[in-house]
Amino acid sequence: MTAERPRRDWRDTLRDATDLALLGFVVALAALPVLTVAPALATASAALHDRTTLGGWPDLRTSLARFGRALPAGLAVSAVALAVAVALSVDLVALATGRVPGGGAALAGTVAVTAALLGYAGLTVVAVGATGGRGWRDAARAAARTGLDRPGTWAAASGVCAVAGLLGVLVTPVAVPILAGYTVAALHAVTARRPVVRAELS
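Below the sequence we write its predicted structure tokens.
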């Protein structure tokens, strides 16, 4: 006979919300030099992976060690991600203001590509968290496999990133760091979901 899991109440929910808000502020602090965005996200993703699979957060020493190990490759990943983000932003602004031809169709296509890339980046962050914040190439390949095998998950990750970006524009600046923790948690949640397979009726 198995023991029943203790029921969660509002205090557990409040504790989780506070932990994610704190995680967001830590990520924002670690990402201040800009090129440390990828290592910061990788470390946060690894911490969330521990939280969901092991039931607890890693200690500070473990997280600092992970951040240090993630720095060398993470700096290059941050530089590439920043270059892509700048290029897409310039394209979106140019299309939205009519500086380049293409109109609404080109703008919609660029927005769709941007959302897809954001979703892919989100899946990659989740995948790198499963390996302790290291192995960006393997994580990128794993994210591509997830996107192809489970396009609904890719779409959900794109939606999470799009909503986070929209909220980042709408909320007060002091609240923006909180979004980082919640966004990484939401990406882990949508990636962990499995499609429901209906049994065929005989």
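Helices lie at 10-30, 37-54, 60-96, 103-129, 136-149, 151-170, 176-192.
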